[in-house]
Amino acid sequence: MTTQEEAEHLPAVVAPGGAPAVTEETDRTPAVAEEAGKPAPAEEADRPPVDRRRRRTRRTALIVVVAIAVVAAGALAATGVLSGDDGSSTTAAPDRPVATAKIQRMTLTSTESVDGTLGHGEPTTVTDGSAASGQGGQGGGQGGGGDEFITRVPGEGDTLSRGEAVYRVNEREVPLLYGAIPFYRTLEPGSEGADVRMLERNLDALGYDGFTVNDEYTSGTAEAVKEWQDDLNAEETGTVRPGDAVVASGSRRVAKLKTSPGALAGGEVLTWTGTKRIVSVDLDPRYEDLVKEGSKATVRLPDGSTVVGEVTDIGTAGGDAAAAGAGAAAGGESQGADEATLPVRLKIDDQKKLGRYQAASVDVILEADSRKDVLAVPVNALMARPGGGYTLEVPAAAGGSGDMVPVKLGMFANGLVEVTGPGLKEGMDVGVPK
Predict the structure, then answer these.
(1) DSSP-derived pairing of the beta strands 246-248 and 172-178
(2) What percent of the chain has pLDDT over 90?
(3) Contact present, 267 and 259 (Cβ < 8 Å)
(4) Residue 62: other Cβ atoms inside 10 A
(5) Residue 96: per-residue pLDDT
(6) Ranges 23-32, 101-110, 369-378, 392-401: which has the least confidence
(7) pTM of the predicted protein model
(8) Arithmetic mean of pLDDT, 65-91
(9) DSSP string, 205-251
(10) Exposed site from 10, 56, 170, 186, fewest CB < 10 Å?
(11) What is the DSSP string of 278-312?
């Protein structure tokens, strides 16, 4: 074959645009124009036009195939398959853990959360004792017995302090005094006892004088009592009878009224509670060993804030058990003594931290156990060992793979776990998931 014939049989040189290169001597008439100048074959002239939508569908399918091929190629390149080293290259696992945490030395405390109720405690009832006081007909000039009427009561939610009137009978004030012993007898000159001391302590606190605070009711005490009775709009007898005052351990908050002005005296007047908010818990007896008088507990309020409470009173198991026994005696089904609860009360010294809550359901977090001066790590730092047990990954100080240290577990609390193991020290890094 001559050189000229060989040249005619070489493949066309492709220009950068993808079309065959054109020599200087080549006729530059566009291929489309050339085709347009040719007469169409007879059989093609009669052929119906090609459906454009079908061609568009084929074109779209081709684009999708190309796109998939590009993505697949990228993925293969990323994994090293197309890296040019015969597929022998792989991505090595990192030598160090994804994240680390410090081993802490601390006091680890486990807790138990129980349901509690924030409020003012269980209300108690105040009953008028004017019939026992023999004070009928005083102050208002009305007769005794059935002529005794309630003439004034406080409002629900009111707070009453020492010396203030709890209510009035025929406009005679019945005041609140602080103490633990109600007036159960008539006190007069010559009387002795703890109730005399309580009366004199209250008179002294209210500003009356002329006596010594002790167990003896003297003439000086009687003179102070007369002055006090005059201020109460009561007859000045110098003696104190049952019903002349209401005794409570401190200030009180009126919970609910049981009577109203104009009602006959001698019945229930109101119920009241303490003024400070407390937390009440009906404790499952299985947690009885977690509470004792004076022990602290954390109280979590509905908004998530917390306040410290102190156990002040622990009752005896009852409640549901007593009700169950009564139900069984009446022919009902007994639910069993295992549903008995233990009443526990906690005081809150920092009342401001309770905010505006007057009554609410709260969580009471009791301390169940405590371990001092132990090493602890996050629970998710533990790695299971084949055949049982756990290890901690201790990364190497400067690159390289770390050590897997077998550990013995202790107490779990608040997402942490007590650990002991060879070489473990406070401040050491251990691997944890990111």
Answers:
(1) parallel
(2) 61
(3) yes
(4) 10
(5) 52
(6) 23-32
(7) 0.59
(8) 38
(9) HTT--SS-SSSB--HHHHHHHHHHHHHTT----S-B-TTSSEEESS-
(10) 10
(11) EEEEEE-GGGGGG--TT-EEEEE-TTS-EEEEEEE
Q: How far apart are CA 194 and CA 184, in angstroms?
A: 12
Helix, strand or coil, per DSSP, at residue 20: strand
The residues pairing with 187 across neighbouring beta strands, listed in sequence order, are 240
Q: How is the beta sheet containing 246-248 ordered, strand by strand?
A: 150-152, 165-169, 172-178, 246-248
Q: Which two tokens stand for residue 129?
A: 């004792």
Burial zone of 434 (CB within 10 Å; 0-12 exposed, 13-18 middle, 19+ buried): exposed
Q: Would you tell me how many other CB atoms lie within 10 Å of the CB of residue 429?
A: 18
Query: Can you say whether the dihedral through the CA atoms of 137, 141, 147, 151 is positive or negative?
Result: negative
Amino acid at 411: M
CA distance 285 to 340: 7
Average pLDDT over residues 127-135: 71
Q: Is the pLDDT of residue 32 over 80?
A: no
Q: Tokens in use for 198?
A: 């309580």
How far apart CA 261 and CA 148 sit, in angstroms, is 11
| Residue 403: strand pairing partners | 394
CA distance 146 to 170: 12
Report the alpha-carbon angle 314-193-237, nearest 5: 120
What was the pLDDT predicted at 204? 98
User: Number of H helices and number of E strands within the chain?
Assistant: 8, 20
Q: What does the pLDDT look like over 197-237, one tens digit per residue?
A: 999 999 999 999 999 999 999 999 999 999 999 999 999 99
The percent of residues above 70 in pLDDT, for the chain, comes to 68
List 116's β-bridge partners, or say none: 362
Helix (H) or strand (E) run with residue 174 in it: strand 172-178
Interacting residues of 388 by C-beta distance below 8 A, sequence separation 6+: none
- Asked if 428 and 381 count as a contact pair (C-beta separation under 8 A), the reply is no
HSE of 189 in the Cβ direction (CA atoms, 13 Å)? 11
Query: So what's the pLDDT on residue 174?
Result: 97
Q: Quick: pLDDT tens for 329-352.
A: 444 444 444 578 999 999 999 999
More confident: 43 or 380: 380
Question: What's the rounded mean pLDDT across residues 175-203?
Answer: 97
Could you give the 3-state DSSP secondary structure of residue 82? coil
